[in-house]
Design brief:
There is one protein chain. With about 350 residues, the protein is α+β, with helices and mostly antiparallel strands. It folds into two domains: about 70 residues; about 250 residues, PPM-type phosphatase domain (Phosphatase 2c, domain 1, 4-Layer Sandwich). The protein is built from eight helices and eleven strands. It has a six-stranded antiparallel β-sheet. A five-stranded antiparallel β-sheet has the order 3-4-5-6-9, with helices on one face. A hairpin with a 2-residue loop joins strand 7 and strand 8. The chain starts with a helix and ends in a 30-residue tail after the last strand.
Length: about 350
Amino acid sequence: MIRVRGRVRSLGLPTAWGAAAVTYKLVCPLAQETGLQARLVTSAVFFAVGAALILHVRHSLMRELRQVRRIAGAAQRALLRPLPSWIDGLDVAAAQLSVERGAAVGGDLYEVVATEHGVRAVMGDVRGHGIGALGTVAAVLGCFREAAHDENDLGGVLRRLERALDRHLRQEHPASAAEEFVTLLLVEIRPDGEMLALNCGHPWPYRLSGMRAEQLAPGDPHPPLGLFPLPPVLPTVGLGRLEPGDALFLFTDGAQDARDARGGFFPLASALTGTVAEGPLSSQGVVGRISTALRHHTRGTAQADDIALLVLTNGRRMSLRGAGNRANDHQAPAADDTPLTPRR
């Protein structure tokens, strides 16, 4: 009923204007005359009515667009829930930048959860962007939040994600299911700092340690999820150890593919090296500096892909300890800098 009343109100003014113009043409004596002056007046009347109608329609469309964007933004904020700043000894921060101008809606996804197997994180990139990608983001994240706790290894988590994505694509995109896919990186950080991963077509992360920013690339990734079935055996690959004070930087390819006005790619590795050299690492500080550098690099240019950043810094006091010692480490270190579109 409310929607019907709104429609009636939105149509009432244009209808009144149109009726006034028709009445003028049929009733007003001036409109019946054929002289140049009478024609000019009649033309001015109809031009004014037409311009008013166009402005009214434009205003209505812009209002509806803003409402759609607000709804989509709220939906994505519900999907990409703010991450705790401190998860089982890890300092956590994330940010997202959507390619949709004026919107916070994108096709990138991330999540971090503490499980009995260790801290597990996912970073993904759905084909496409904007409102149309939200359904796939919801399917993948919803499955990960359950599977991360239920499965003993990352291979089991990945197979659950594959089944969930397959069901979603067959139900929501039956005509183009074969063309839809998601790149995914699954990471498990154990209490002693050991890192395991499974990669489906996603950029490998960087480890920030000391004065170095090193991209970890232990092998070729599997194809993106959804394009081909997963192989029968899914052994995890080792990413080394995340020592206390080290940070793991996960990102979507929009970060390294971002271009400036001259077409130059964003120097992600150099930016990370400069960030490490600026001082002690904090997840919020790394996200803030890289977000600022990306914003400066892409200033005045239209980007082709969404960008998501996720940083996990090992704030544990020892690289190996028992579960009973973790209670003393749940005070997060102070964070500096403010990231672009932060989701902490």
